[in-house]
Write a structure and sequence with these properties.
With about 525 residues, the chain is of the alpha/beta class. It contains 13 helices and 22 strands. The two termini are about 35 Å apart. The structure holds 1-deoxynojirimycin.
């Protein structure tokens, strides 16, 4: 059974580097997060997901963990983390931290030991080592020639991220691939359970789990091995922490929500459901958009059919869990890159009234710009999504008192840049728009996380899209021509963005979303 608190949770994702710097060193910190909790609440969010804050060489922005048990000094101390959990809880905010179970930094002491010519027994097989320094990885990316140990090792993502050994489901190379119940693979599992218990004891409420599908290798599409590992980890840890919540980076609710995760992300992978809605564009070599077929782009001709073909089968496999539509995250370009203010408001109104728990990425609530910047900490094209939060028009837009050249990333120098302070004052701002939509979601239980979504109107070639949420109707028309929706009963309009009118049918104006409730 899922953590009870997620049924009305609205998450706010914080990239700690860039949120708020309180000690003037140019990089965000935990005290900065604490100082902005009331702001987070004011948006309508009541839960946080904080990107990795562990000790790290930061080759992949902290997803290369050097010590799971330490806070990176640049963010503060363990006392700060415990204070954050406590203050957040006092304000009714739950806190998820990022768990990176699949790999560590190549500087992690486990890996340092494991890579010795003669490693000690405990860590010799904590990672996946092949037979010798010239051995290939059986289809997996591998690194050779870097270690005294006469073997190559498997990596998960970047070169700095050696894969932890949770074993193989299908063993092709018996000399070096181990089954998932081998002593070393079981020891890795136990080590990760310890990490989870440690942070739950400190006061966190659960984890966003990085690359949750990656644990067991040669696992096939069914991911039976990885699911078996997660079933064991989650059931074991939940014995002592029944209200822990887990959200997986997996995008496969048929797997993730049947092995102990409460929530799974619907992710931005090119062409899939999420990108059909807001991110279906092509770029030239210079990064300029040459064509944009995103459903929410006003001039696009896209209908919701491709979205539904990808989304619905996955959504139907959610079991008792939540399949969550993100509105953005630290890995994809901000929607401000391709959608203008109105298109974005419409897209967010839709995404935030859909089933699953909503997730808002810091700065998207004010429509912060995506910026082309040189890569920082393994960000590459993601770097421009990770710039400092824009609070007000003081020095560095209120992010930090450091000199500009000391900042983690430059603040947006554009004179038209969005700030929280300016948007607070403007009733039509993105910020106030999001507040309204989240208030609507809170007011009507039918717009909640667990209420069923069924398709009410979707047709090839038609820009009008309508879904039922319980008994309520959400109709959206991102196009530039008015549309008419036949109704199956008597309704009243409870929310409209754009222009909508109830006659016999519902008239849905251009770039409009309307939410209707039945009249009994
Ligand atoms: C997914 C994370 O969201 C991303 O930022 C990271 O680079 C990779 N996993 C590797 O951990």
């Amino acid at each position: 059974m899922s953590a009870s608190w997620i049924k009305d949770a609205v998450f706010y994702e914080i990239y700690p580097q860039s949120f708020c710097d309180t000690n003037g060193d140019g990089i965000g910190d935990i005290q900065g997060i604490i100082s902005k909790l009331d702001y987070v609440k004011s948006i309508g969010c009541n839960a946080l997901w904080i990107n990795p804050w562990y000790e790290s060489p930061f080759v992949d922005a902290g997803y290369d963990v050097r010590d799971f048990y330490k806070i990176a000094p640049r963010y503060g101390t363990m006392e700060d983390a415990v204070e954050l959990f406590k203050v957040a809880h006092e304000k009714g905010i739950h806190v998820l931290i990022d768990l990176v179970p699949g790999h560590t930094s190549e500087q992690h002491p486990w890996f340092v030991e494991s890579s010795k010519e003669h490693p000690g027994e405990e860590f010799a097989d904590r990672y996946i080592w092949t037979e010798n320094a010239f051995c290939r990885g059986d289809g997996m990316p591998f690194i050779g020639g870097e270690t005294p140990r006469d073997a190559t090792y498997i990596i998960n993502f970047f070169k700095c991220q050696p894969a932890l050994n949770y074993g193989y489901r299908k063993i092709n190379e018996p000399n070096w691939q181990q089954p998932i119940d081998s002593p070393a693979a079981l020891a890795t599992r136990e080590a990760m359970k310890d990490v989870m218990r440690f942070w739950l004891d400190k006061g966190c409420d659960g984890f966003r789990v990085d690359m949750a599908d990656s644990l067991v290798k040669n696992d096939g599409d069914e991911k039976l091995g990885t699911m078996e590992v997660w079933k064991d980890i989650t059931s074991d840890v939940r014995k002592d922490y029944p209200d822990m919540a887990l959200v997986s980076e997996w995008n496969n609710p048929g797997c993730a929500l049947h092995c102990g995760f409460d929530m799974d992300f619907c992710l931005d992978w090119y062409g899939n459901s999420y990108s059909q809605l807001v991110r279906l564009y092509q770029m030239d070599k210079k990064g300029a958009i040459t064509r944009d077929d995103s459903f929410f782009k006003a001039e696009s001709q896209n209908d919701p059919m491709a979205f539904l073909r990808d989304f619905m089968p996955k959504y139907e496999q959610r079991g008792e869990g939540l399949y969550c539509m993100i509105t953005g995250n630290h890995d994809c370009k901000r929607t401000s890159f391709n959608l203008n203010d109105k298109e974005r408001k419409l897209a967010f109104a839709f995404l935030l009234t859909m089933p699953g728990a909503p997730f808002i990425y810091y700065g998207d609530e004010i429509g912060m710009a995506y910026r082309w910047l040189p890569t920082k900490e393994g960000g590459y094209h993601r770097t421009g999504t990770r710039t400092p939060m824009q609070w007000d028009d003081s020095k560095n837009l209120g992010f930090s008192t450091a000199d500009a050249d000391k900042l983690y990333l430059p603040v947006d120098p554009n004179p038209g840049n969005a700030t929280v302070a300016a948007q607070e004052k403007d009733p039509d701002s993105m910020l106030n728009h999001i507040r309204k939509v989240l208030a609507l979601r809170k007011e009507y239980a039918d717009l909640g996380a667990y209420t069923d979504m069924t398709v009410y109107h979707a047709e090839a070639g038609d820009r009008l899209f309508a879904v039922k949420r319980g008994e309520m109707l959400v109709a959206v028309n991102p196009g530039l021509e008015e549309k008419s929706l036949e109704l199956d009963g008597k309704y009243e309009i409870v929310y409209v963005f754009g222009e909508a009118e109830l006659a016999e049918d519902l008239k849905v104006g251009k770039q409009t979303m309307a939410v209707l409730k039945p009249v009994k």
